[in-house]
Amino acid sequence: xxxxxxxxxxxxxxxxxxxxxxxxxxxxxxxxxxxxxxxxxxxxxxxxxxxxxxxxxxxxxxxxxxxxxxxxxxxxxxxxxxxxxxxxxxxxxxxxxxxxxxxxxxxxxxxxxxxxxxxxxxxxxxxxxxxxxxxxxxxxxxxxxxxxxxxxxxxxxxxxxxxxxxxxxxxxxxxxxxxxxxxxxxxxxxxxxxxxxxxxxxxxxxxxxxxxxxxxxxxxxxxxxxxxxxxxxxxxxxxxxxxxxxxxxxxxxxxxxxxxxxxxxxxxxxxxxxxxxxxxxxxxxxxxxxxxxxxxxxxxxxxxxxxxxxxxxxxxxxxxxxxxxxxxxxxxxxxxxxxxxxxxxxxxxxxxxxxxxxxxxxxxxxxxxxxxxxxxxxxxxxxxxxxxxxxxxxxxxxxxxxxxxxxxxxxxxxxxxxxxxxxxxxxxxx
Amino acid sequence: xxxxxxxxxxxxxxxxxxxxxxxxxxxxxxxxxxxxxxxxxxxxxxxxxxxxxxxxxxxxxxxxxxxxxxxxxxxxxxxxxxxxxxxxxxxxxxxxxxxxxxxxxxxxxxxxxxxxxxxxxxxxxxxxxxxxxxxxxxxxxxxxxxxxxxxxxxxxxxxxxxxxxxxxxxxxxxxxxxxxxxxxxxxxxxxxxxxxxxxxxxxxxxxxxxxxxxxxxxxxx
Lengths: 430, 221
Known about the structure:
The complex is a heterodimer of chains A (430) and B (221). Chain A has 430 residues and is α+β, with helices and mostly antiparallel strands. Chain A has helices spanning 2-19, 21-59, 76-81, 90-97, 137-140, 147-150, 163-174, 184-187, 233-243, 264-272, 281-324, 326-334, 339-380, 395-412, 414-421, 425-428; strands spanning 64-69, 102-110, 116-121, 124-129, 133-135, 157-162, 191-195, 213-221, 230-232, 253-258, 276-280. Chain A has a six-stranded mixed β-sheet. Chain A has a five-stranded mixed β-sheet with strand order 4-3-7-8-6. In chain A, a hairpin with a 2-residue loop joins strand 3 and strand 4 (124-129). In chain A, helix 11 runs parallel beside helix 15 (414-421) and helix 13 packs across helix 14 (395-412). By secondary structure, chain B is of the alpha/beta class. Chain B has helices at residues 44-52, 74-84, 100-105, 117-127, 143-155, 173-190, 201-206; strands spanning 2-13, 16-28, 33-37, 59-64, 67-68, 85-88, 161-165, 193-197, 209-214, 217-220. In chain B, a hairpin with a 2-residue loop joins strand 9 (209-214) and strand 10. Chain B is globular and about 50 Å long. The A-B interface holds A 1, 4-5, 8-9, 11-12, 15-16, 18-20, 327-328, 331-341, 425-426, 429 and B 49, 52, 54-55, 74-75, 78-79, 81-83, 87, 89, 91, 93, 95-98, 102, 106-107, 109-112, 153, 157.
């Protein structure tokens, strides 16, 4: 019997919202605005999270740990003094290899002196100081078609560049100066002149541009250092022996590959006990998540204000309708409706309005996200680095937002529903 | 049987206190047709509201078949109104967004019932001669049709008491007479207690008993 009366109340609620179209539309609009804002907020944060995760995973695969000397033991002073102390050496590799769960260790070395590179881009010669790094083929094999290219022992030596450098060039040089944008395809095969005795910043009596080594771009990789071209480790060792014989023989960093990605954190912790600094996906993600959480708080506050305004709009629309519907509610009370049934009636109306409003709100959100992605991202793509879409819309977000909209509407209608249940039939029917 | 014992009702507005009813003692038998008469503001509506459980007296007892209404909580009073009382108002008070049939069925929505309300609604539609208008909305009806709808709505839950507050007040003489005749016939056929508050001397004349109130005091019954 209770279920039947509940069903009856819901049926009256449905008829009532159809009958009172104008206020229903107003309420639906209030819910839709609130839901659209929360939908955009959640899908934006979700999208940023996904883009950051993908970017981090590209640079730091789940089973990779980047090992460096502790920060306070490196830096310019250490570089200038060329001290071996606290640096990464073959002995460090041996120690790390003793840890369980290690698959491979790829060392990275650096040219041991100041140097510069020159490259011609879109008809303009660019000369800049640069570092040169060396890594083994196995480390970047996914980016190079075959080992022969990487193990070439004659000039031009193969070199790979970080993908980020291309993005940075396009964003900070090409776009502002209206130069053509460059793609990986444009640069592959291009030669870079490496001056091992010449620095544009640190000029000295030894500054000499006559020695030059030709490098040829053979690929791009997210694993390559941002600070300069990366070439085969053996080639760089040979160059170092000739041009930087006094330089240290240590490694700049080690790329440790674990056997099981689930054990990466555990292995990293053990490496840290060797007085070394580590960087890995989970650690990076934690830092990124912390940054995203600041963004979430900021956007969340704005969304909260919009939600509050929506809630106030829903409450005031419902309160004003209750004032208008006093006679109707008074009649229902006189005819035998209990206070609980009147509350149920108003909250059922709110539920329907919340459902329809949420569907509209989600539709508005999807439309806004699509428009933003289509026009704004296309416009901004050359000025700031943005992913294909900033909004990640998933079925879970749609379901959760729909449920949220219905709940928002029902909860905010609770106060007006209480007022409605207290309508005095005698006064209302006068 | 309806028994009112020593009923008083005071209304307070600011510092002013008004006695709407003063020491009212009435007995109304089951199946009786009673007209409550008196000038405007004499306390007729207050008396009906107290009998129907819409209002409570400041003092005294309302016994319906020996059960004191003051022992009922708000939900029980709602159920009492729903099951035992049928209301007919001067202003009709039909839901504009419901059809005639749905308006008639409205009181059945709040609680369970032992009879087939859909079949009974059809019977009542026939009795009040609105079968052809069963799907029409309130704004498509004449005053008389609206009040006939309200009468059928008052009867749908098979109540024991019908309370009609100035049921002809908004109708012309001819329609008003027709409504009163209909009410009288229904009261006889359904065996219900009919209490009508009215200014109309003609209605008072055909009632079995007249309760006359002036300034909240029963002058004649």
